[in-house]
UniProtKB/TrEMBL annotation:
The lineage of its organism: Eukaryota, Viridiplantae, Streptophyta, Embryophyta, Tracheophyta. This is E3 ubiquitin-protein ligase PRT1. Residues 296-360 form the ZZ-type domain. GO terms for molecular function: ubiquitin protein ligase activity; zinc ion binding. It comes from Carya illinoinensis. PANTHER family: BIFUNCTIONAL APOPTOSIS REGULATOR. Residues 21-61, 194-232 form the RING-type domain. SMART domains: RING. Pfam families: zf-C3HC4_3, zf-RING_UBOX, ZZ.
Length: 369
């Protein structure tokens, strides 16, 4: 049974309207940042995407066809800023996921970086685990260059929260974690650093892979596509726009540091230009008003996030999860792959099978007759 005091604690956390999802109107949970810079919850974006044609941002109607990875930095920033409300959202979403039989990626909030120090919010890793496990978690298998980290408990952080133990699909409250003083002050400058310049983010942009950079730190070599410096994945179609909600948060919470960063960037007179063909294409995406003849309707790529997959589709034969694990042809043929979008327990030992597009399958069947 839910503690009646929880509602009072949640109400005491004054949640900024900037961090309310435009779809469900609740606190953002596992936030996804679209290429236009607007933020929504992971499941809100997934459910609102068009599986036949291009999708559109619910706020500005900007077109897109890639389902972005969760922004881990924002996820953990919200967890620190609103620990009670965020844990409540976690429990709420977990119950919904158990009903669907599909689970979003899990994260390790106690991760450490390569230097042995607690990692900042901008470098946290995925945690591959099954929600059916109890408080102990299974160590995930790395599928690509991204290291999968494991944690000691399913829900564990500095905020007040109920520890939930999963037993045969049922949740049971088994304890509480005490709240440290000055919770709202827990987010530090070191938690919101650019992955390139290692300074406070200024005009932050979030790539399709979920990593965050200063707008001025994004460099695209002539004739090439934008590539993340951390995971080496390509950012599809063009230059991402500044995430204004995050930018306003940084300006409000770190005013002195923000002014110094702004002055430094202006002094360098950094000019961002889309010089590559991919950037130019990103300004005017081709409208997919007619379904592509080789589209796999309702199926997205678990690496780059394109929905639907067009052309060759590779389906994992060994993943038993309800939603499965699929890759588009480009991602299957490259070595830079992120973990599954839906917490699939995929490993490098798993085998794939080639699935043809619907219309291509019909054409082949007709020729065979």
């Amino acid at each position: 049974m839910e503690d009646p005091n929880t509602h009072d604690n949640v109400d005491s956390e004054k949640i900024s309207e900037s961090f309310l999802c435009c779809v469900c109107l609740e606190l953002l949970y596992k936030p996804v940042v679209l290429s236009c810079g607007h933020i929504s919850c992971f499941w809100c974006v997934h459910k609102s995407m068009d599986t036949l044609h291009e999708s559109h941002c619910p706020i500005c109607r900007h077109p897109y066809n890639h389902f972005p990875t969760i922004c881990q930095m924002l996820h953990l920033l919200l967890l620190k800023e609103y620990p009670i409300a965020y844990k409540r959202r976690e429990n709420q979403i977990l119950e919904e996921e158990k009903e669907m039989g599909i689970f979003s990626p899990q994260f390790n909030s106690q991760a450490y970086n390569h230097g042995g120090n607690p990692a900042s919010l901008s470098t946290m890793g995925f945690e591959s685990k099954s929600p059916s496990d109890s408080l102990s978690t299974r160590k995930g298998e790395p599928y690509a260059n991204l290291e999968l980290l494991n944690s000691d408990s399913q829900v564990q952080d500095d905020g007040v929260c109920a520890l939930i133990e999963i037993r045969s699909g049922n949740s049971e409250v088994i304890g509480n974690v005490s709240l440290k003083e000055n919770t709202s002050k827990q987010v530090l400058v070191s938690d919101v650093l650019c992955l390139a310049c290692k300074q406070l983010l200024f005009h932050p942009v979030v790539l399709n892979c979920g990593h965050v950079y200063c707008e001025s730190c994004i460099i695209i070599p002539a004739g090439e596509m934008l590539k993340c410096q951390v995971c080496q994945t390509l950012h599809p179609r063009g230059f991402p726009k500044v995430c204004l909600e995050l930018d306003h948060y940084l300006e409000e919470n770190f005013p002195k540091e923000y002014v110094r960063r702004r002055d430094a960037v202006q002094l360098k007179q950094v000019v961002i230009e889309c010089s590559t063909e991919s950037c130019k294409q990103g300004k005017n995406l081709p409208r997919l008003t007619v379904p592509h003849p080789n589209a796999h309707f309702g199926v997205g790529c678990d690496s780059c996030g394109i929905v639907p997959i067009i052309g060759d589709r590779y389906r994992c034969k060994d993943c038993v999860e309800k939603i499965g694990f699929d890759l588009c042809g480009d991602c299957y043929n490259t070595c830079s792959k992120l973990p599954g979008r839906f917490n699939q327990q995929h490993t490098t030992e798993h085998k794939f099978e080639l699935i043809r597009g619907f219309r291509k399958w019909i054409s082949t069947s007709c020729l065979a007759r």
